[in-house]
Amino acid sequence: AGIDAALFDRVTGGLEPDPVVLRADRSQPEFTRPVWEYLDGALSAHRVNRGRQLLGNHAQTLGAIEQRYGVDRHILVAIWGLESNFGSHMGNHSVVRSLATLGHQGRRPEFARSQLLAALDILQRGDISPERMLGSWAGAMGQTQFIPTTYNSHAVDFDGDGRRDIWQSSADALASAANYLTANNWRSSLPWGIEVRLPDSFDYSRADMSIRLPLNQWQTLGVRSASNMSMPGDGELEASLLLPAGHQGPAFLVFDNFRSILRYNNSTSYALAIGLLSERLQGGGQIHASWPMNERPLSRSERVELQERLHQAGFDPGGIDGIIGANTRRAVRDLQQHLGKPADGYPSATLLEQL
């Protein structure tokens, strides 16, 4: 792979597996927080206030990044805040040791080995020393928590010191995040999404990220802005309908920039948090609809049971792994239609009880 043998021997000599990394890799939490609890933490008053302060402190740098990459500064500061609490929680694990451990004994050894080679390439280029190359237990690094391959593809030296330092240089970190979003089809001056109200007779089967319709078509279907303001942008702008807590909770129309955020972290809760935090930094971002707080999310074992029972009932969930992906949501939607329920694809405890 082009890694110098002397460098390899120097950084891997005496390495032993990290038991903390192995425990983290093997732990699959039984319970997950509902989306509204996740958002409460992501959008905390402390994070919003700190973000506003940093927007002022780094206004000149953020303006230059906006001009070069076309990514809104509030989105970048929101990513900075969620990924590392503005650089204060970057992780203290040796990236080389973590990736070597995962490459040797982890659940995805091939992926970890590719990341290890990429990390060694970073060291060979001299952007960081082995002692300072610290990150999360999974090998995500710096203020923007890039994995090594993402770093090699998209990290930039924005402050001009000759090194792409996403650990100590907030300018490099923020510009690297902007470069990554731009490479993943970020479109400047367009929104990430908007909260909407749905008509009583709405067909919830349209709430699927694979379905994209122009804004004017959503309006024809009775979809309206939750704040009674006009819809953003061009009527031909395509959007998908997101129901993060099913038909009983808030609804959002999300645009291509939302999908760009998903490339950063493939979680709709994360992408929603980034969009809302970027608005909170500007005094907005309040959700109008109520969350169904009486509806608890399924535990991991319940998600596995749901998939098993869907399969037994003739609705293919696409595998029994406890992960609610597109195939499982499609199977849930088919079951809901069969039962005459709102077909929102949301895997509720009530639905599991009915199964």
The largest pleated sheet is described as: 5 strands, antiparallel
Strand order of the largest sheet: 4-6-7-3-5
Number of strands: 7
Provide the β-strand percentage band.
Answer: 5-15%
Order of helices and strands: HHHHHHEHHEHHEEHEEEHHHHH
Helix content: 40-55%
Poorly predicted tracts of residues: none
Give the oligomeric state: single chain
Shape: globular
Number of helices: 16
State mean pLDDT (0 to 100 scale): 95
Which class of secondary structure composition applies to the elements? alpha+beta
As a whole number of angstroms, the C-alpha radius of gyration is: 22 Å
How far is it from the N-terminal to the C-terminal residue, by CA? 52 Å
Structural summary, described in words:
The chain is α+β, with helices and mostly antiparallel strands and 355 residues long. 48% of the residues lie in helices and 6% in strands. It has a 5-stranded antiparallel β-sheet. Strands 1-2 form a two-stranded antiparallel sheet. Helix 6 packs across helix 10 and helix 9 crosses helix 10. The longest helix has 17 residues.
